[in-house]
Amino acid sequence: MSMANTERNLKHLFDGTEWNVYDDSVLNLGVGAPGPDLLENCCDIFDKATSHRLKYEKEKNLSYLFQYGATSGPVETRNAIATYFSSLYVDNPVKSEDLIITTGATQGLHFVLSTLIDFNGIIFIDEVTYMIALDTIKQFTTLTVIPIKLNKDGVDVKQLEQVVQEKRFQSKTKTFWAMYYTIPIYHNPTGIVFSEAICQTLVDLAKKYDFLILCDDVYNILNYTSKLPSKRLFSYDKGAGNIISNGSFAKIIGPGVRVGWLELPPRLKPILEKSGYINSGGCFNNYTAGILASLFEMKLAQTHIEKMKCAYKERMLHTCKVLELNLPSSCEWTQPQGGYFIWITLPSYADANKLLKLCLQDEHIFFLVGSRFAYNPAIANNCLRLSISFHSKEKLVEGAKRFCTVLKYFLKEGK
């Protein structure tokens, strides 16, 4: 494969690996990002929105777009986010004044860790979780990371409370002594949705023991089996101020846009706004945030998001149908109600890394092994994650069939 082709394909992906997954002959089922076919529309809509915004700036003689920008981000952008998501989150409207614009969910996580959490504190995580968030958390080397068991209806709240009681201390330097990081809706990598009972208990625990919960809410509106998105954890927090919703346009408009937002309770937003991390330079992404305001004003964003959602839904349902018909009965999985990911648990004796080698060798198929998502890798050695976002329905159906063929042979030989 030529260097030019390698560089071209690298532009689409973010997760480096020893495997040559950037070869055109490899069907990569590990990428948690929109495919090029879904992003093609961005060229047209961003061209229109940019022209619209620049014309507005010039006519008003403002040039605000090229300034540092308001600390929390352009009010037009925050209003657009609040209006759009309030139309979906009917149980709990989003308020513009509660938002801070970021460059995406990972930067939002880093910002919160840097500002609100005691550097000698505790980070609770799900036993398997988003691998880039895990990498980010590990970079705060003075923090103690404690994984908590996941059940089919969400995190094990009994174990969480027990550990919280054991580890709790009074921070003298920061707002919170600890934080629990999670993805309660269409969890990455497992695809589960936390039940209402688990969500209510989490909020009660956070209030009782005064720790922070940061939710990556990047998949929330990608609901495929219900008319409205699931109730988000932020909506359970009735004024206590212990929950932050971490949002992003990466999955629903495009990762390269680099715009996200933190939705914060009133007691926490001023603390972040006063941080030198943001106060010295204003909005993290003032220019592109301004373009997004026009994208929503012109209804281009809403139409694009709906197209993305429809494509994801079709891809998820067709991929799951193949798995339902062809996945060996000794494997465990649950069809996700939304989001990007399908989590498969192999029999306990099976090694997902060995299966990956066989899939690459026999069918040129790549996926992410479960250990990539675990703080303690051994607990997920027999697990793997498939993603439905990057490839067309046809490629996914073909790939899922080929994957199941290799898996059946692998399990038969491994007995």
Automatic annotation (TrEMBL):
Keywords noted in UniProt: Aminotransferase, Transferase
Positions of the Aminotransferase class I/classII large domain: 59-402
InterPro entries named in the record: Aminotransferase_I/II_large, PyrdxlP-dep_Trfase, PyrdxlP-dep_Trfase_major, PyrdxlP-dep_Trfase_small
Pfam families registered for this protein in UniProt: Aminotran_1_2
GO molecular function, one term: pyridoxal phosphate binding
Coiled-coil boundaries: none
PANTHER family: AMINOTRANSFERASE, LD15494P
Protein name as it appears in the record: Putative aminotransferase SSO0104
Provenance organism: Ceratitis capitata (Mediterranean fruit fly)
